[in-house]
Design goal:
Largest sheet: none
Structural class: mainly alpha
Number of strands: 0
Radius of gyration: 14 Å
Oligomer: single chain
Shape: elongated
Helix content: 40-55%
Length: 78
Amino acid sequence: MRKWHKLLIIAVIITCLSGLGYFVYGYIDIDGDGLSNKEEKKYKTDPYNKDTDGDTLSDYDEIYVYNTNATLSDTSGD
């Protein structure tokens, strides 16, 4: 785990304990894929993994660029 990632997690924990928790957490992008944690929840993707389905496309690209399901590695069914 990278140092900045650990620091981000610590910042999130402190924020949660301070009372702003869920509001701030929803707008953070923990995995750096371009989707906020709130969007990750909406699309049922993994907020700790840039590529939920392991197909080499980021969750953001699958949802906003290619308009496919970021939780299925083969969305065409072939």
